[in-house]
Amino acid sequence: MAMAMGGKVATLLVVAMTLHGLMVPTLVSAISGTATFYTSYRDLNERHIIAWAWMDGRAASACYGNVGKGVMIAAASDVFWNNGGVCGKRYRVTCTGATNPVPHPCTGKSVEVTIVDHCPGGCAGTIDLSKEAFAIIANPVAGKVQVDYTP
């Protein structure tokens, strides 16, 4: 049974595990939200502009400073930031629909990203993906899409 936590929750059958010789399905809930993408934004304390360096995959971030974590990365909004508790966690993100007039923005693919930063209050989406990650799941022209994301 899925319980809503700040948004719609879709229950997915993800894996089966062996328990006393029996196959018991394990359920993982996908959380619904929205995704955007970024190339730069203001950090939590508005001290300076954090610019993502796409060429070498390095980015200044709330979680890792200037240690590069590649380009399949994302920033968590206040919805699930948990005071940095999600730093380093990986999420599978899937586009589920449009949020604006761009027709059929979803590619039908999912992407796995690592949370490396905080998208501060006023963030346009629940999860702010790198441009590279967003382009895997949706047409970047859309700018913002509905998604399900699963830890």
UniProtKB/TrEMBL annotation:
Transmembrane feature ranges: none
SUPFAM superfamilies attached to this UniProt entry: Barwin-like endoglucanases
Name of the protein described by the UniProt record: Expansin-like EG45 domain-containing protein
Matching SMART domains: DPBB_1 (SM00837)
Compartment(s) where it occurs, according to its Swiss-Prot or TrEMBL record: Secreted
GO biological process: systemic acquired resistance
InterPro entries: EGC1/2 (IPR044206), Expansin/allergen_DPBB_dom (IPR007112), RlpA-like_DPBB (IPR009009), RlpA-like_sf (IPR036908)
GO terms for cellular component: apoplast
Domain Expansin-like EG45 residues, every copy: 59-151
Keywords (A to Z) from UniProt: Secreted, Signal
